[in-house]
Amino acid sequence: MKYGVSRNTLLITAGLVWLIAGANILRIGLVCWLHTEHYWLLKVCEASLIFLLFFGIIFHKLYRKHTRRIAQKQERNCPFGFFDVKGWIIMTFMIVLGVLARTLHWFPETFIAFFYTGLSLALMATGIRFLLYWWKNRKEL
Q1: CA 18 remoteness from chain centre
Q2: Which residues in the chain come in under a pLDDT of 50?
Q3: What is the total count of domains within the chain?
Q4: Which end of the chain is more exposed for a tag (fewer CB within 10 A), N or C?
């Protein structure tokens, strides 16, 4: 690609996309959290469990897959190349599912509060991992 972005830019973009997505979901989770008044300690435990499941099992694999793939790319790349096609499809599916679930009220706010909070923290932690990977390897990429 004649006009494109570097691998460093792809890593920074990936980190920012994950951080922004996480911050947006955290906002939704906290709004729902504030509307429910009971069992805050239980919600903290549930959110922690969701965080551990997503960050430790799912997002860890995605982070490794995408950083490895980005590191092997050429010098100039499509600005949207921080995800592969499968990654874009999964992300689109998750966004559509999340919007539908909230619009159609599939889940109570108590569920959204802890689930979105745990998920968002896992997304933001993964975004930070992308940025740290970029920072540590910025001269070699």
Answers
A1: 4
A2: none
A3: 1
A4: N
